[in-house]
Amino acid sequence: MAKRATGGGAKSAARARHSRTAGDKPAEPSEASPGSKSPAPGLYLVATPIGNLGDVTLRAIDLLGRVDLVACEDTRMTERLLQRHGIRARLTPYHDHNAERVRPALLRRLAGGASLALVSDAGTPLVSDPGYKLVREAIAAGIPVTALPGPSAALVALQLSGLPTDRFLFAGFLPSRDAARRRALAELAKVPATLVFFETAPRLAETLAAMAEILGDRPAAVARELTKLFEEVRRDGTAALARHYAEAGPPKGEIAVVVGPPSEPVPAAPGEIDAALAAALARMSLKDAVAAVAAATGEPRRDVYARALALQRRPGPA
Q1: Three-state SS string across the chain, please?
Q2: Mean pLDDT, to the nearest integer, of 184-202?
Q3: Same fold for the domain at 8-151 and the one at 154-259?
């Protein structure tokens, strides 16, 4: 590991490194030896526990106590972790609501030779938070960036789901509005991989119901309170899970939903397609109905669209 220069020499060296053109590959920050006052200048992406505060690496504990500044979503959440491990650090909030305003100031500090750790409330930074914009602009400015890996709720949920792990897609949070959620699911329906989502408790039942309708009744798992005392993973088909949470009500805790990959499509009979279209058209727009039926049946969207138009042109009962 590289040793940190002292006095003004460190910041001069940092500025020299940061003067690279945007096309150059930025150097990675080099942490000084444990116990030294401060690590080398640069941006450090530090994973933090997703529940159990003991799930933090020794490297993260050491670094968080030595950087010039820790940028975090909620200073109260991060302070709990730091107090648990006897760490004193200077914290500043960086989240969805203030990122556009705060990011330029953080980049100026980094350009001036500061060491900055970026953490999220729980898990790995940049996963469903605004951190990627800070990383993108730091890289463009030639600022060294590196990561201290650790917990991730998406990966823990995938591990515990019992579903295929050889290929998966993290899809984050689905849109909150029903029509937009259905369109998003229709786009994912043919992805040949296990799907991983985050979801809120109040929307869980309706999201699972939409998954059962658009993706089909696939094997799935709902994981909540991961690594905590009341950790729970419920495994079943999407339809059965939707019924369970509709009856039981919203569960407590942070939630991840894992859905198995699509099975080999079986060609649908024309009558089945027409029946599915008629049911879909009764409750959604033509565009959304076509997308939903095409995703569920595996039929080309243009063919489903043509059948939908034909259905709409049919005269109604006398």
Answers
A1: CCCCCCCHHHHHHHHHHHCCCCCCCCCCCCCCCCCCCCCCCEEEEECECCCCCCCCCHHHHHHHCCCCEEEECCHHHHHHHHHHCCCCCCEEECCCCCHHHHHHHHHHHHHCCCEEEECCCCECCCCCCCHHHHHHHHHHCCCCEEEECCCCHHHHHHHHHCCCCCCEEEEEECCCCHHHHHHHHHHHCCCCCEEEEEECHHHHHHHHHHHHHHCCCCEEEEEECCCCCCCEEEEEEHHHHHHHHHHHCCCCCCEEEEECCCCCCCCCCHHHHHHHHHHHHCCCCHHHHHHHHHHHHCCCHHHHHHHHHHHHHCCCCC
A2: 96
A3: no
Q: Which residue has the higher pLDDT, 272 or 7?
A: 272
- 8-151, CATH topology level: Cobalt-precorrin-4 Transmethylase; domain 1 (3.40.1010)
For 154-259, which CATH superfamily applies?
Tetrapyrrole methylase, C-terminal domain (3.30.950.10)
Residue 37's pLDDT band (boundaries 50, 70, 90)?
confident
**Token pair in block for residue 266:** 């079986």
pLDDT band of 317, cuts 50, 70, 90: low
Q: Report whether pLDDT(6) > 60.
A: no
Locate the domains of the chain by residue range: 8-151, 154-259, 270-313
